[in-house]
Structure prediction request, 706 residues.
Amino acid sequence: MNSRLKSIILELRQRKLNGLIVSLPANISYLVYAESRDSYLLVSEKENIYFTDSRYSEEAGIFLKNNARLKECNGGIFKHIAESVKELGLTDVGIEERYMPFAEFSKIKELAKGSFNLIPTYGIVEGKRVVKDASEIVKIKQAMEITSSSLEYIKKLLAPGIKEIEVAGELERFMRYKGASGSSFDIIVGSGPNSSQPHHLSGQRKLRDNEPVLIDFGVDCQGYKTDLTRVLFLGKIKVLARKVYDIVLRAQEQAIKRVAPGAEMAEIDRVARRFIAKNGYAKNFTHNLGHGVGLEVHEEPRISGNESTAVRPGMVFTIEPGIYLPGKFGIRIEDMVLVTNKGCEVLSGFINK
Amino acid sequence: MNSRLKSIILELRQRKLNGLIVSLPANISYLVYAESRDSYLLVSEKENIYFTDSRYSEEAGIFLKNNARLKECNGGIFKHIAESVKELGLTDVGIEERYMPFAEFSKIKELAKGSFNLIPTYGIVEGKRVVKDASEIVKIKQAMEITSSSLEYIKKLLAPGIKEIEVAGELERFMRYKGASGSSFDIIVGSGPNSSQPHHLSGQRKLRDNEPVLIDFGVDCQGYKTDLTRVLFLGKIKVLARKVYDIVLRAQEQAIKRVAPGAEMAEIDRVARRFIAKNGYAKNFTHNLGHGVGLEVHEEPRISGNESTAVRPGMVFTIEPGIYLPGKFGIRIEDMVLVTNKGCEVLSGFINK
Prediction:
């Protein structure tokens, strides 16, 4: 059994469980060291079983290696899962309550016919994923290289008259030539006033001179994601935009300086938020400061005012303060940091701001 | 209240419910006539409320119009939902059991403190979405035009030495110039033996002469999706590939002929499956014949051997038989059909096979 699965078994024992039905694709991918889709993984001391259907069984047969046994299920996947739980003699089986739909929970419970208990859990696999190992950091850095070269490429193409969605299309194309399997989320290209919507969908608006263009994108490479935001300017930068940009940049710098083992997440968020508030834009910074990135583009930890836990070496997350002036423009600057033993390494630090 | 919401209210009454918490994005989009993300919709006779957070509230304020009232929730979205249910005096509220995670169900139930019941439901909104209205068909046809021109474009670029993932990248770029907001799913480009994995991920393999290339892709345009598969050949078509291609094509033709109001879904599936079996490839057609397409790329109905219900005018679904020879190659031909009063219209019929 691989070391990640072993660590889950230990965690299950502490929680008085003897099995776990893993349903979040990123959690499964983490445990079997491969990209997984439309599947379930039953983890137990005796055996680990991977359930999928005929669409994926050929590729799963190749990538699973000895990490788990493949069970091809055509129709009735939950019946197969329930039967395996019974065959292995498991009595208390965790489910991932944030990812398993109510109907699946009900179905498995019904099929159990009282022969085992289903226990809602959260964070068993996520708790391991939150600290990245060396092999994961290598992959994230490779993904960041592609992110950087994609941004450099697009900078040369930006010009008045090009549509937001066309910028997104060029990024989508280029990153695949560089080795990415795709985007880590729908690319945000917000031009002019559209930049004030933090999660704008790239649309038909054409870029114009003397306006900011906010580009928030990331790549997926070997299963690992990146997330980066830059605001670029075509032509002149107006006075207000420059002022707001500088405030966001300095808020980010101060927050990054605070990142070190032991620092509370809430405290890191507060550093940026206070600086923005002091400059009069408290109401215009409307989201958390950051989030973890790894096999998912949004994962643990959350760098938010409510999180009193401390950051740990090996965590990878974004620092992305923003100021949004509805109807005018928005500025967000987002980088990814890796917590080190003494402070942090800005993984996207080599990309110009 | 718009007519779609009214039809849901009628359906709720029949099910003895006085409210529904809608959580599937496509269902919400359908009911508010706009693309929706990270939100919930509470439907009730008295009022319809749209819950989202600050990231999306500016755009939601614009697109919601008078379809629902916007409630911005920063943190504690379920608390807001439970409070609204209480304020409206709703006693029996449906949830979408296939889409609501167990944890959300538990949370809302806890917040209800017995003041209302949560009832698992399935298919309330999907039951309406399964038959497309005229405005939806117009959008699907527009999306199919983009799909067609994207395929024509890529045909000219295909050549030995180009990687699968680069083909995907070129499609991603081109469709956005033509008006798509993006792909409807991860593009499948399977070259040579990779084509035998029905849901292959486009990878680093280079196209080669005298091999088939299976391309399965679709676009998202105004929220509506397409799904199309063609197998193209570089150089010569080998004898076995031609033979298998012809069997799949004829199986598809026979199935399409059977599509008409009143035809059972299982029967349509059986027509293609029997023809393939008669030719000796029963074990190599490993998935259902088709699936509905609309606001989601996979939605109701399922054209499968288990579905005894009949097709109805206005349904839109794929017909996609396939034969997969592991290690050798796979052939799948996929078109989208619209059920008419007398038979069906092949929406992708103008795209060469």
Summary: Chain A touches chain B through 51 residues (CB under 8 Å). The two ends of chain A are 45 Å apart (CA to CA).
